[in-house]
From TrEMBL:
Pfam families: HAMP, HATPase_c, HisKA. Its EC number is 2.7.13.3. InterPro entries: 2C_sensor_his_kinase, HAMP_dom, HATPase_C_sf, HATPase_dom, His_kinase_dom, HisK_dim/P_dom, HisK_dim/P_sf, Sig_transdc_His_kin-like_C. It catalyses: ATP + protein L-histidine = ADP + protein N-phospho-L-histidine. GO terms for molecular function: ATP binding; phosphoprotein phosphatase activity; phosphorelay sensor kinase activity. It comes from the Bacteria. The lineage of its organism: Bacteria, Bacillati, Actinomycetota, Actinomycetes, Propionibacteriales. Keywords: ATP-binding, Cell membrane, Hydrolase, Kinase, Magnesium, Manganese, Membrane, Nucleotide-binding, Phosphoprotein, Protein phosphatase, Stress response, Transferase, Transmembrane, Transmembrane helix, Two-component regulatory system, Virulence. GO terms for cellular component: plasma membrane. This is Signal transduction histidine-protein kinase/phosphatase MprB. Residues 190-242 form the HAMP domain. The chain crosses the membrane at residues 20-43, 170-192. Its cofactor is Mn(2+); Mg(2+). It is an enzyme of class 2 (transferase). It comes from Kribbella jiaozuonensis.
């Protein structure tokens, strides 16, 4: 099997496996980073909730233990509490009658005031979070009656060791995720790349002319579909090339027959051994005309799909075209003992087309029909109307075609290959040329069984 040659542009684009690995690694990295950020937020929120609950519990205990009998005793008790909790990083902010909010820490005082300590009711509880000077503070305030109260204020800080642990866990998760993604991407790249490379190798071998190779249909569904499509293409190319070879063989046979006749009679004339020079010249003329028609048909068939293929379009009454065509084919049918019939509508059948090409199609169909029609059978040309179209039929009373042959009747050389040696056949290009001409004229040409017993070829053109 031929090795695939990669161009510099292909090499620069990188392989599918490499792209899959990089994509997996990128996706895993983004996923881990997003998860780390979410986890950090959740950790901070969880720690904050724990701190808030702890602070609320301490505030409830303090509120229950503060002496309610007098303002001086209450202030003294809160002062002692402030000294106890100061070691925990908690600031006690007092609300005293006529003195207002009192504290040794300005930021904590501002946090307590922002939380609403200055207007707290006698039994009111405040549990909130406020931001002062770019720092978040947890505030637990309690009212004690007589326009007094207190607030426990604690800044929200994530401990350094907790931050380090969190960062370490995120980095570990990131590394593990990237490693797993790289392994998964490598396996996935191999899973996808191996059958694709095999399919590419088969396609490269097909480019070199091989048609006997098949790509393994394996891997994911999409990859298997690509391999199956390449296999179907290989089979189609094999069949198409086989038909082309058969067509070329049939054409070479058709060319060889008149060439042999021309060569033989020309040689006899040159050697002076021809008993009837006029007959020899007549045969040479006929066979050269046959060669000319065959070469002309081949050239038309080759050029029919090209933009420069010339069509001389005009409005034509197809009745006149069929009458002129019938004059020729009625005589030819009489010579072979075949009955000829022409059916025309009473009204004009006008369409925009090329009358010369229509005549070429009709002559080709009539020649094929007459070739297989036995004496006393009938060859029919008919013209009719259909909604928005005109139809022409050429029908014969010959042996007809097998049902499956009507679908492939217009493929070059197919009928010639099948029926050669069983009945008179043409070059194998007449029907293909007729179909191409009609298609180029914007019409359709189909084949089917005829009521006369043979085959019917129906030409449909848009009406004007």
């Amino acid at each position: 099997m031929a090795a695939e040659v990669r161009t510099p542009d292909q090499a620069g684009r990188g392989s599918l496996a490499t792209r899959i690995v990089l994509t997996c690694v990128a996706v895993a990295g983004v996923a881990v980073l997003v998860a780390g950020l979410v986890m950090a937020g959740l950790a901070r929120r969880s720690a904050q909730n724990v701190l808030q609950q702890s602070l609320a519990a301490q505030a409830d205990v303090i509120a229950g233990q503060v002496d309610q009998r007098g303002l001086s005793s209450r202030a003294a008790g809160l002062g002692r509490v402030a000294q106890v909790v100061r070691g925990q990083g908690i600031v006690v902010v007092l609300l005293l009658p006529r003195r207002g909010v009192q504290s040794t820490d300005g930021s904590s005082t501002q946090a307590a005031i922002t939380a609403g300590l200055g207007e707290i009711g006698s039994t009111q509880q405040i549990s909130t979070e406020v931001r002062v000077g770019g720092t978040d503070y947890l505030v637990e305030a309690r009212g004690l009656g007589d326009s007094s109260g207190f607030a426990l204020v604690e800044p929200v800080r994530l401990a350094a060791d907790t931050r380090r642990t969190l960062v370490r866990n995120i980095l570990f998760a990131l590394g593990a995720g990237l490693l797993v993604a790289a392994l998964a991407g490598t396996l996935l790249g191999r899973l996808l790349g191996r059958p694709l490379r095999r399919t590419a190798d088969v396609a490269a071998a097909m480019r070199q002319g091989r048609r006997d190779l098949r790509a393994p249909v394996e891997g994911p569904t999409e990859v298997a579909e690509v391999a199956a499509a390449v296999n179907e293409l290989s089979i189609a190319l094999q069949h198409s090339e086989a038909r082309q070879r058969e067509f070329l063989l049939s054409v070479s046979h058709e060319l060889r027959t008149p060439l042999t006749a021309v060569h033989g009679f020309a040689e006899s004339l040159a050697d002076g051994v021809a008993t009837d020079p006029r007959h020899a010249g007549h045969v040479i003329q006929q066979e050269s005309q046959r060669l000319e028609r065959l070469v002309s048909d081949l050239l038309d068939l080759a050029r029919i799909g090209a933009d420069q293929f010339q069509l001389d379009l005009a409005q034509v009454d197809l009745r006149e075209t069929l009458v002129a065509c019938a004059e020729v084919w009625r005589v030819r049918c009489e010579r072979q003992g075949v009955r000829f019939r022409l059916d025309l509508p009473p009204v004009p059948a006008v369409t925009t087309t090329d009358p010369r090409r229509i005549r070429q199609v009709l002559d080709g169909l009539a020649e094929n029909a007459l070739r297989v029609t036995p004496p006393q059978a009938q060859l029919t040309m008919s013209l009719g109307h259909a909604p928005g179209a005109v139809t022409i039929q050429v029908r014969d009373g010959g042996p007809g075609l097998a049902v499956e042959d009507y679908a492939v009747a217009f493929e070059p050389g197919v009928l010639n290959q099948k029926y050669r040696g069983r009945r008179p056949v043409g070059s194998g290009i007449g029907l293909a040329l007729a179909h191409g001409l009609v298609t180029r004229l914007g019409g359709t040409l189909t084949a089917g069984p005829a009521p006369e017993g043979g085959a019917a070829f129906t030409l449909v053109l848009p009406a004007t």
